[in-house]
Amino acid sequence: MTTSTRGAAKTPAVLVLEDGRTFRGRAYGAVGETFGEAVFSTGMTGYQETLTDPSYHRQVVVMTAPHVGNTGVNDEDPESGRIWVSGYVVRDPARVSSNWRAQRSLDEELAAQGVVGISGVDTRALTRHLRERGAMRVGIFSGDAWTGVRDEALLARVKEQPEMTGANLSAEVATKEAYVVPAIGEKKFTVAAVDLGIKGMTPHRMAERGIEVHVLPATATVEDVYAVDPDGVFFSNGPGDPATADGPVAVMQGVLERKTPLFGICFGNQILGRALGFGTYKLKYGHRGINQPVQDRTTGKVEVTAHNHGFAVDAPLDKVSDTPYGRAEVSHVCLNDQVVEGLQLLDQPAFSVQYHPEAAAGPHDAAYLFDRFVSLMEAERA
Known about the structure:
Layout: E1 2-3, E2 12-17, E3 22-29, E4 31-41, H1 47-51, E5 59-63, E6 67-68, E7 87-89, E8 92-93, H2 106-112, E9 116-119, H3 123-133, E10 136-142, H4 151-159, H5 170-173, E11 179-181, E12 189-194, H6 201-207, E13 211-216, H7 222-226, E14 232-235, H8 246-258, E15 262-265, H9 267-276, E16 279-296, E17 302-314, E18 321-323, E19 326-334, E20 340-345, E21 350-353, H10 368-381
Parallel strand pairs: 4-5, 5-7, 6-8, 7-9, 12-13, 12-14, 14-15, 15-21
Antiparallel strand pairs: 1-4, 2-3, 2-10, 3-9, 4-10, 11-13, 16-17, 16-19, 18-19, 19-20, 20-21
Helix pairs in contact: 8-9
């Protein structure tokens, strides 16, 4: 429940974690209350892309960068049609937007979309707490939602909220109707993209390479996928627990049975892991930001990459695994903690990564992965 109000900078606010720790600050954006999973993002830029990433559905994002909002908000950088984060936590919000592309301030945009936030928080201490204790449920309260309410009552409200483990969320953020992103220039291939929470830049990156992208709902069937006569199939990023995604897993298995070139990112990587018979698990605090080091084990190259995931695939790093669809191996690994960041099949054209190669926002180190997908489709056609 939120009440969108502008000029809320002087309104007291409080952040309450499910383990009882509280942080006091000032309202930022909308005034009211909100709940979600507290996570932190290490990105220093690209807050518009973060806010509008559907993968952040039902999460309260803590920005580790201390100064947020200085470039304002425009209508060109969002990755979807709305802000998806449940709440926003910053230390020092910019008082003035200063960018030639800015059309309004960040706090105005948060208020207009009813996103409850808090500023003036020691985000360094909050981030260290989440690193030590793990991502957890949280509530932000300001205005009437906090006035006269005891902290014990607020904590009880937080503990009533559902956890991210077991959450099936992709259908809540995905498109309800299929749509087409046309190829830029000459059309070379057709790709069926299963939308589990896709970002706008992803089909654009494929379109730049001559791909006509048919974006399908998360509930798409194998028949829906092959109705567009695809040269390749793509599974997108998205929110929630991959252990609940039985439908997309079954669709991916149908694609693997037909040996159609396949590429998955983020949630799509976890779907591939499940389709191959691997398990998934929840990370303590996840990977979120645009500065995560990953090694491509097929080339030895180290990339700086954009991440947003709280779950990972449980696959062996030290051997090739036998699966119902041929041999598979871990192709990418995070250099911070050795978490699986990519999978590839050795006997048919299918691969995935756990991060975001579309670089919105983020570095362009992983752009070659779209070219790798194109190469698979070219080889299959040949």
